[in-house]
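ok trying this again, last paste got cut off
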Amino acid sequence: MTEEQARREIARLDARAAKQRVVWQGRDVVWRRFGDGPPLVLIHGGHGSWLHWIRNIEVLAQRHTLWLPDLPGFGDSDELDLAAHALDRMQHLTDALAGSLDSLVGEDTQIDLAGFSFGGLAAAHLAALRGGIRRMALLGPAGHGGTRRQPVAMADWRLPDRDAMRAALRHNLAALMLHHPLVDDALAITVHEQCCIQTRFRSKAISRSASLKSTLDRYSYPLLLIWGEHDVTGTPEELVQQLAEGHPGRDWCVVPNAGHWVQYERSDDINRLLLSWFGDGAAVAAMPVG
């Protein structure tokens, strides 16, 4: 796939979405809706947008009405009226997420919920604030405060030369997001470029916090935790002990041969796993689920 083909693929999928622009306290929060069926909300990660789910949308939309936000300060959504490092910016983001969602589906509507990376932490906050969550899945969730194992430093991608910028983004995808070396994955690079350029919300300090465990303690319904085997943002074995053991309603899964962006790198496996989890609640037999 070339860069031009990647851009056409993004445009094709975007054209299939029903785009909803919700005004929340004077700021626009943009949602995209796909498919038909029980509602399933998918929340993207830091330096991301709805495109973090680009390899999952069409499969999951066969059985669900998907609701995908661009979180405030990401993608097409406006920034919140806050200082860049305001200590309460996660609370304001959660309020905007819950309020805009309720205006679309109704505050009493029960939903399923999945979140990736920083979006996993956002999903946990949403579940704790809103309630009405039937089942939740968190993929490589941030906010665990545990050991990171990233051996390669990130490169500065904010460069005036576009070829140099894309080279830096390719480096960062290999350093943080994907396990298998990028040969010429124009779709991954193009998605990452678009997401990074549009990001204005400062999520790093929140992602590195240790707030996930206490937030999940306020959620008592079925929860599936998913990590790629080689996720550099955490050590799955350690996180299973911290977040899953001793909680009978929590299942977990480590996906072999995958990095942090597990739903992109192992999309077929994740699609089967999520369809099963949000369907009959069973784990996919091929996966080592706790």
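PB: full thing came through this time. The beta strands are 18-24, 27-34, 39-43, 65-70, 111-116, 133-139, 223-228, 250-255.
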